[in-house]
Amino acid sequence: MPPIVSEEYKVNRKKLILESALKCFAEKGFELATIDDICARSGMSKGSIYNYFKTKEDIYIQLMNEQTRENFEYFKEAFLTITTATEKLQFLLKTYREVSLTEAFKNLTLVHGEFWLSTSRKKEIRSIMLERYQNVYIRFVKEILDEGKANGEFKHDFDSSVIATLFWTYIDGICLDYAVIGNEYPYCEIFRQTEAMIFSLILKRD
């Protein structure tokens, strides 16, 4: 009889693959990192890795989904003690503004940008990425904006979906600029100016 493999064993093996892949992607970039690199880092065979993931893209998507889940669980928990839509947006911007600007942050930002570009012509993966962007990121900020409209904090004459898209466009762009330019880029000040610009578009004025 074949050996019985517990669910805990499977979870731990999958976790090892993901952790190893993340290090490989950060060191080499998504395109240059290979399944062989992940094998060497994890000590697992190709066959073992393919038992859990069909492709390198599948591995990255799993990593991305787990990071997204952790981020939004953190935001939602923080929002339990935040009462206004304005404060929620400020908290989101503050979280990204005060991120630790390490080499790991820069490398992973570049990897994510590289993944977006390298898979943009692959219809199935592009669909997954767009679904995540629209139904997680855009929806999350849109709901905050709609809340602010409903309780009288924000104007009613803007499109919440457009401003939500603008919100993430700024954040993605600032993070990518920093990853490319490095410490010469005025990361925190750009975030402060971006925050002022966004609130000038949405806040009601007395």
Automatic annotation (TrEMBL):
Q: Which SUPFAM superfamilies match?
A: Homeodomain-like (SSF46689), Tetracyclin repressor-like, C-terminal domain (SSF48498)
Q: Does the keyword DNA-binding apply?
A: yes
Name the domain of life.
Answer: Bacteria
* Entry keyword Transcription: no
Q: Which positions fall inside the HTH tetR-type domain?
A: 11-71
Q: Which Gene3D superfamilies does this one have?
A: Homeodomain-like, Tetracycline Repressor, domain 2
Q: Which residues bind DNA?
A: 34-53
Species: Heyndrickxia camelliae
What GO MF terms are annotated?
Answer: DNA binding
Protein name as it appears in the record: TetR/AcrR family transcriptional regulator
**Keyword annotations for this protein?**
DNA-binding, Repressor
Q: Print the organism lineage.
A: Bacteria, Bacillati, Bacillota, Bacilli, Bacillales
InterPro entries per UniProt: Homeodomain-like_sf, HTH-type_Tx_Regulator, HTH_TetR, Tet_transcr_reg_TetR-rel_C_sf, YfiR_C
